[in-house]
Amino acid sequence: MSKQFIIYEKLLSKPRLGRYLIATKGNQNKSVRLYKYNLQLSASLFGVISMLEIALRNAIDQHYQNQLQNRDWLQEAIQSNGLFYHKSLCNRNGRFEQAQKVKDALNSLGSNYTHDKLVAELSFGFWRYMFAGIQFSVFGNTLLQILKKRPKGTNQKLIYSKLTQINNIRNRIAHHEPICFDNQNNSSTLYATNHFQDVLDLLEWLGYIPNQILSNLESPNKAIKKIEKL
After folding, report:
1. Is 218 exposed, middle or buried (0-12, 13-18, 19+ CB in 10 A)?
2. 93 phi and psi, to 5 degrees?
3. Which residue in 49, 45, 50, 16 sits closest to 177, CA to CA?
4. CA 31/CA 127 separation, integer angstroms
5. Is a pLDDT exceeding 70 seen at residue 152?
6. For the chain, which terminus, N or C, has the lower number of CB atoms within 10 Å?
7. Per-residue confidence band for 64, with pLDDT thresholds at 50, 70 and 90
8. How far is CA 112 from CA 65, 75, 124, 160, 186, in A?
9. What's CA 72's distance to the chain center, in Å?
């Protein structure tokens, strides 16, 4: 048993590192390298997703400032007669979840509140849900306008699906779950590659040139190539 593998097995636990050992057909050195490459891939992809998150939330915010003619549209929407309290947004438990998220963010900010800080405080999950069917409709069916360069025929359902999948992989990374396996526990970059492309597509549809936006970030492609060559 290699010295490096013993160290990592102790550090990570047998079950956690064992998955990488299975994927590399019992090769201890390769299993440690795969684990490291997964960390590199996760870190780089998280950075890329963060750029999309910032671009998306700012575009949505600016759109509704203009659409609703109110810079503080988020606060207006959580009033008792506000859009976040539209009856169709009430869930099975009788809660208005999006309204509560805004309120929680406001409570967290307290006296430090500014509209810009509130926008930044709200999660990627909150912003992607602005494309969910009912909410998309309640807010006027206009949000696709922020994706000015989207392909013809791109609809709200497709955008919501892509954002949901990106949010899922973001959460996996945030919870230190691996993103370098397929469903059969084989080493695979397909999952990360597909969602990286989704991020690039959405940035382009928002009107950006992805290579310019991501030029100073570590590209996921570097880690992807390392994993594919392993």
Report:
1. middle
2. -90, 10
3. 16
4. 37
5. yes
6. N
7. very high
8. 21, 15, 21, 32, 48
9. 25
